[in-house]
Structure prediction request, 329 residues.
Amino acid sequence: MKKKTNKKSFAVVLSTVLAITVTVICILLAGVRAGEKIAFADFYKRARTEFAIPTRGGFVGQGLDYLEDENAFITCGYAASKGKCSMVYYIDKDGNATRTLLKNADGSNYTGHTGGIAHYKEYFYITGDDGCDVFALADLLDHKSESKKLGEVKTLLDPAYCNVYEGKFFTGSFYRAGNYETPDWQRITTPNGDKNMAVITVFDIDDNAADSFYISPEPSAVYSTAGLVQGMTFTEDEIVLSTSYGLAASHLYFYDKSGISAGQLTLKGKNVPLYYLDGACLNRTVTAPPMSEEIVYLNGRIYIMTESASNKYIFGKLMSGKHLWSWKV
Prediction:
């Protein structure tokens, strides 16, 4: 009887300890979430959730684009497990997500970082090592399980993000001291005195150049930017940059289009217009939760893809990072 009583007592103690542990964890998580809402109160009071960011297949979200004709988003990301395919998710207006794995032309796994995604006509573009890799948009629209690389577009830099806007193709570099350095030609002191360390190269879109995926081979302009830029978009009056790194707060920088000063930059022996995104034309800065990536402006709101939703970064699930948020401009 004594032995049986001891076993019973041990079970009671164990269940009590587990109950207390679970309770403490729940209280801590509630505190973390409450603290996050307080820390980013100015962001959240003008933000709303749109849909859950996919995580299947170890997806680590990076790029974001909107397909106007389909009223759908496409988002690209790499796989957390080394050697596995990077992928694109097609997300319809109801939040339903369909996955397409990316493949090289020879059928092998495409394993790029996929920092950015954009589309034009029958193609979509994924940021690669020294340019953008090109795939067939129909593969996404038809919800195919795989999409093979068709070719690439050189961009004169190692692009971290890309965007198509008003007949132009934009690709930008990412700078962080120590581990993401940029070449000297990208390090520019602006007329305002800001020391910008990265750039955006701009290429004209040519509807008669389907053989080059509609992107002109020579840049038509360059924008000088600060470091840590992960994405860009355009409102009616502003250029917006998304910056982040690690667990630090993200930022959205709003630059007045009409206030941007200009100069010239020599690229490949030719002078091209150089535009300075600096403090002189900065309208405002919005502080946002960590790990913001590419952004899209749509109907007065900025939609923000975050990396923290993935299974690689669990903290996003514990806070508010598992959803794509939109912020009212």
Notes: The domain at 48-328 is CATH 2.120.10 (Neuraminidase). The helical segments are 2-39, 41-44, 137-141, 315-318. Confidence is low (pLDDT under 50) at residues 24-32.
